Amino acid sequence: MLDHVSISHKSGIVLWSKSYTPSASNLVGSSSNPINALLKDVLVEGRSAVHGGGGGRESYEAGGWKMEWVLENGLDLVFVVAYHRLLHLPYIPTLLETIKSLFLTLYEPFLLSFVDSLRDGVVSTTASDWEFNKLLDGWDKVFDKVVKKAEMEELGVGKARKPFGRKATPIPKAALDAVFGGEEPRTDHVVPAAEMPVAPSTPKGQSAEEIARNVSALKARLAKAGGGGSSGGKKKVGGGGLPGSPSGGGSESDSPSKRSSSNNNNNKPPAASKVMRKWGDSSFTESDMAALDFSSPPPPPSSSSSSDPSSSAPTLSASQIADLISKDAMGSRTKDGFYDVADLNGSSSGGGVLEGGGEDEEEDDMIEKALEKSRLRKERELLGEDLGVDGAGEEEGGTGGRVVGGMSSWFTRLTGGKVLTKGDLKPVLEAMEKHLMSKNVAKGIAEKMCEGVEKALVGRKLGGFGSVKSEVRASLSQSITRILTPKSSTDILLEIKRKQQTPSLLLLSSSSSQAKPDPYKMVFVGVNGVGKSTNLSKVCFWLLQNDLRVLIAACDTFRSGAVEQLRVHVRNLGMLREAEGKEGGEDEGRRTRVELFEKGYGKDSAGIAREAIAYAKEKSFDVVLIDTAGRMQDNEPLMRALAKLVTVNTPDKIVFVGEALVGNEAVDQLTKFDRSLRDFSSATQGAEQRGIDGMILTKFDTIDDKVGAALSMTYVTGQPILFVGCGQTYTDLRHIRVNHIVEALLKD
Fold first, then answer.
1. Residue 722 DSSP code
2. Of residues 276 and 484, which shows the higher confidence score?
3. How far apart are alpha carbons 273 and 295 in whole angstroms?
4. Which of 199, 221, 455, 551 has the fewest CB atoms nearer than 10 Å to its CB?
5. Is the pTM for the entire model greater than 0.85?
6. Higher model confidence: residue 403 or residue 293?
7. Containing H/E element for 695?
8. Mind listing the domains of the chain with CATH numbers?
């Protein structure tokens, strides 16, 4: 829609310009440049511009263009947008204010030195002496994003499209009448036009008898395409439509083809009797259950119920295997040679979620803020409000008691130099509570956080305005840090290493040198659909990168496709190992690094887990990852079954997998899971009381800086967040640090 955009100095130096069409580029380069006419007539000579559009917008028309502009008087810069004079583009004022704000923000040091040099007469005023392309590198990309966002906001985004599908085209009625002689054709089947039989071309000298035979053949082909003869009791389709044909005027039953069809029908076996309906109160038989079992057959007995990934689905291509991981998201190796996943701020991957995901997302965030600022300025101008010089009132929260938002505006309500009381802190704490809830912190936890800050500040004497802000932020930061600091170890690799090096009691009491240590056991629990199986496979990839042998136990025997999903993950992880050249080794018994242990559906999950652990010990696996069925936290029978699995198999780590998208629901889920496990696991005499040992937060790439679920979950159990999931590849697993969450929660 735009023809030309330029940023220039009033002296005539063009800092940056962009033309969208060849004709616009030629027009700007000619002697009749409309931009020069605008600068001369309106800005230099002070002639009045044309008022057009809403809100008293000024524009200038020249050379078939309509031009709108905005000035930066402090630096004598002019931002001009030109487009065809017949177009109506309401978003142009917002676009101009946005690019002005962004340009000044990004290149302020250079612009100040450039303008000072011009004013002092130190440098030449010819554009050829300046290398603006290098100095303003990256501005083209930023500008294109601004234009795209402004246009999409003006036009609306995400209009639903009608589903596209190919529909069958009915045969025209005239064609059917020509074939069937005007009688009613079959209606139980519509032949698509692409499948419609085409009659052979007939020369002009063809006899009537030949034409009749062709018509009969066409009828037979149409009847065959429609599914055969009509059902009993319905009217038969008539004979040929032309007089004088052999079958004309007679019934189709007189033809040899019809008699042959009748003989074939007589030889067919009698139809089977109707099967009675099975109602809900009738019992199911084994044959009924077998008819509904569409799962794959169990593996042969020689495999000991363990699935080899090489024997499952077809192999993937090299490009498909490469897409399973993201090189940019790979972690790093420690000094000891261990592979560790990257931190969420992108210390190992070059960009993280909380930091905006790299330069592109930082630019997007900056553009969004500039657009919002331009919209606020436009709204206030329409309301006749005075913003002050360069919008200072807007940046500081407005004048006349108006508060734009943000935690900085909360602190300005406090006054220093006195002993703080509850009355002084009440408005600040109310705003703080709303801020925490907007970050997805559960309401009850946000209230307790504010109570802690209140207790820390009431009665404290503050000496100035600046100290109020720093003390309140420090108090909130300290409170969040205390909650998020882990109370137990989060180094799973160290725990695995210790278990491998420390012999079990059975090994000490056994006189056989062939006794083997127990594998490290991790159980993944959570509600339905949070991503337990997916993040289990990510943890498996991390363990494989540390040269550990992993057995995945498929203990979700309820959800359809759960076993098949894990089988696909095991196949993919095995192919990744082969692609990296790490599969195999001198010890043939340790050839396969990852396997799946499954017994199908409808079995006892606790028993499957026990058998998987025994198999892992026998085959010298280092880690067993136990996948469980999703269940709601209020379902007592299912929670008892989960507690039974924990009590029977005594896992080393019980990991709760939850979504980062939820707020109050996260507290309810985690509280009831932890309480049910502790209550039901200790119900058995002599059993140890077990609860949640750690959490994995999934879908963390969808929440921006709304990380309140992390604070809520840690506050409930006091257990650490082991990992966060932030993507769809096996490398999209991250560590989250305490300071990351604190910064995100305090961010305005």
1. E
2. 484
3. 29
4. 455
5. no
6. 293
7. strand 694-698
8. 2-155 (3.30.450.60), 404-484 (1.20.120.140), 521-746 (3.40.50.300)
Q: What is the three-class DSSP state of 68?
A: strand
∠ CA 695-699-703, rounded to 5°: 110
Distance between CA atoms of 449 and 194, rounded to whole angstroms? 69
Select from 613, 629, 630, 628 the least CA-distant residue to 551: 613
- Copy the structure tokens of residue 285: 């038989």
Question: Which residue type, as a one-letter code, is found at position 434?
Answer: K
Positive or negative, the Cα torsion across 546, 551, 556, 562? positive
Identify whether the C-beta of residue 741 lies closer than 8 Å to the C-beta of residue 710: yes
* 6 pLDDT higher than 80: yes
Sign of CA dihedral 733, 737, 740, 746: positive
- Look at residues 376, 371, 401, 399 and name the one whose alpha carbon lies nearest to residue 386: 399
3-state per-residue secondary structure call for 712-740 = HHHHHHCCCEEEEECCCCCCCEEECCHHH
- 268: tokens are 């067919």
Q: Report the alpha-carbon distance of residue 98 to residue 86 in Å, rounded.
A: 24
Element (H, E) at 644: helix 636-649
Helices vs strands, H then E, count in the chain: 26, 19
Average pLDDT, the chain: 74
Q: Give the helix ranges, DSSP H, for 17-91.
A: 22-29, 34-38
Separation CA 608–CA 644 (nearest Å)? 12
The radius of gyration of the chain's CA atoms, rounded to the nearest angstrom, is: 38
Task: Specify the DSSP class assigned to residue 193.
Answer: G
